[in-house]
Amino acid sequence: MPCFRCGARQTDPVRGASPWKRGVRADRQVLICPGCQTAHDWADELDRCSACGSAALVCRLGEVECRECGHTRDAVRDDPGAAGLVHSGGRPSPDGGLSAEVEAALSRVLRRGPAT
Fold first, then answer.
1. Where does the record place the region Disordered (predicted)?
2. Burial zone of 29 (CB within 10 Å; 0-12 exposed, 13-18 middle, 19+ buried)
3. Is residue 72 part of a domain?
């Protein structure tokens, strides 16, 4: 999943906590890259909890849950274009590019050379 601001793709993390942040925008789970965290006031662009106002939301299984107070509500999914999300800029492949990403990840994990 790319950064919702700039479209940068998340790479395999080093050990430890990921520097990427999660949030919800237009009832969709989004990621914020470290660069956009420092360059933009990104928290103002995220959805907020209707109960406590926190931006610490997570979207899963058709629900949006606040990680601060535990309040949940149904996620209403509109057209993704309405959310102002940035796409990674990659050319979509017939399978969405998933097979190439899986192949690259397996090559890294198994320490193989590039696939031929």
1. 78-98
2. middle
3. yes
- Asked whether residue 57 is assigned to any structural domain, the reply reads yes
pTM given for the model: 0.59
Smallest CA-to-CA distance from 11 within 34, 45, 40, 39 is with 34
Q: 66 phi and psi, to 5 degrees?
A: -85, 130
| pLDDT in 10s for each residue of the chain, 116 residues | 788 888 888 877 678 888 888 899 988 889 988 888 887 777 788 899 999 999 899 988 889 999 999 999 988 865 555 455 555 444 444 555 677 777 777 777 787 655 55
As given in the structure block, the two tokens for residue 65 are 């849950």
In the chain, the number of structural domains is 1
Contact assessment for residue 7 and residue 86, using Cβ atoms and an 8 Å cutoff: yes
Residues ≥6 apart with Cβ < 8 Å to 55: 23, 43, 46, 47, 48, 49
Instruction: Name 81's Cβ contacts closer than 8 Å, sequence gap at least 6.
Output: none
